[in-house]
Request: fold
Amino acid sequence: MHGWNGRILRVDLSESKVSIQRFEADFALKFIGGRGFAVKILWDELKPGIDPLSPLNKLIVAAGPLTGIPGPSNGKLVVAGKSPLTSGYGDGNLGSLAAVHLRKAGYDALVVEGKADKPSYLYVEDDDVSILSADGIWGETTFKAESKLKEVHGRNTGILVIGPAGENLVRYATITSQEGRAGGRTGMGAVMGSKKLKAIVFKGTKEVPLADPENHKKLVKESYSDIESKENYTFWIRQGTMATIEWSQENSVLPTFNFREGVFEFSRRIDGYAMEAMKIKRRGCPNCNMLCGNVVIDSERRESELDYENVAMLGSNIGLGHLGKVSVLNRMADEYGIDTISLGSNLAFAMEATEKGLLKDGIEWGDFEGAKALMEDIVYRRGNGEILAEGVKRASEKLGGGSETWAIHVKGLEVSAYDCHTVPGMALSFGTSPIGAHHKDAWVIAWEVKTDRLGYTKDKVDKVLEFQRIRGGMFETLVACRLPWIELGFELDWYPKMLKTATGVDITLNELINTVADRVYSLIRAFWVREHGEKWSREMDYPPTRWFKEPVTKGPFKGGKLDMEKYDKLLEIYYNERGWDERGIPRQSTLNKLNLGEVTNELSKYVSLSP
Amino acid sequence: MVKLRFLGYIAEKMGTREINIEISMPIKLSELLETIKGINMERAVVIVNNKAATPDTPIKNKDEIVIMPVIGGG
Reply:
């Protein structure tokens, strides 16, 4: 094979055992890589009902055939497992030199199972794999731990690390790298922590076998030039995703005061122009010529790497209109290894719970010092932090008092930074995202605003599906960053060309975007349904109640909210298009059509399947 | 006076975040945009008074037009 190494590294921490699993072309072509590999492994190897924080869970770090080889913005990895936050399929994506080194070490994925008997880390140098003591780094922040590991193993390594949040099993702890790249907001950091695994260090010295290295090199050189020629390239270099603060404010989708509103009075104090005034440099993923990490000096004179999601969730969503202070919260979250989106949501939830008298010794809106202290309490599971470390869904179940209405999540995953009172297509996207509410898979707001913002139409469903197939399907299986395409207009046609020179195989865009993507989505859905059995219902795909019951009170769309009956109709169309039944469960015929016939027998043990 | 506001890279391209244009009578959006050059409606989100606009949308004084990039949501 070319493009793929054809090897999955398997480590059993309980048995201190290391083995190599080889795979052939049929597996590679059926699932491509990344998310595809991850869900297939988890489907085959996890029994339903296991505790995600037990040794029975598996942590998967997966690349795709374009990952880590020369190519635009492809230094990314998928990290996956059963999510401690949602108890369903969980994954995330982060950029790291670990992507390059995993592949150069000769692997396409790593599967970690079991649990070490004491805090440990993995060192993978090509075929040599060691489980080493994490003495001296367990308990450290992600920044300090990574720095110490580099002193030991050298700077020419790729490191994935968890912080105290993961060690303390905070359900939305992330895996981080390079002091600002983070992924796995579905609690993948907690999965690592539950295995007493502090870090994974990769050092690869081989080359990934390419089918046509000469032409691949030529194609890649052209692709980088193409990216730099795009009309909005220079503005992207200036503001990256931070330009979205102004955009979201303008379009009334900026999450404000726990997603009560879509506009924030102080948005200009935290927008891309405010960031530019504080910016000192950019950082990002390997192989990228459009680095999106804008680094500022925060209010405590430390470096903080910002992007839109961090600033919206730790800024407008908690009523904090001061970018220097938001940057402090962001940097602390990266150091602790906790997801900024879910953290922002939990802080806002706590603020609202305090306002409504449901939380004792709580926190006021916009209280910066209070937010710092509460973040530490969450990370170390103290006081109110103990409840909030569990996520807003569990916190609201514990607090009651109607808080379920404003616990802003889907399937237990806190909603990322777009308020959807008045954009029903995006609400559908959040409702049907395969990991719970996340914008990664489909972001349709610009298209909605441009066409028929308030409508509930089949066109909206088609748009959500189109984006899910490309963003959540193709890019998450190739494991390359979608930003060159979605932000700068880098054409999708480049990807089958790069696949051909890398792998030697003709894989069409149609195959990637339709066949493989749909297969992966239905398998992820099967994983969720198997976990719930007959208890699974279409209500799992509903967005937060707040968006239906409590209209926005500010901005040009004052009084706007979602309509449940119309949303249900959108969902019905979505299910039909996906070949799922009225419960949102893949039909037998759909599974067979997607070459997932083997899933039917297993799934039908847990739930009755429609034909 | 018609107010035009620009966001993101479109503001960078136009060299300003806002301009005001006096029109003597209502005109179509496409005709107004032709006078300022540099705006491709197909590659932008254009809203007039907070509603989605088309090239034929009628524009009169006191209208507010916002021209934004088609961003990808990160």
User: Anything to note?
Assistant: Strands of chain B lie at 2-6, 18-21, 27-28, 44-48, 51-52, 58-59, 64-69. Chain B has one domain: 2-69. Helices of chain B lie at 8-14, 29-36.
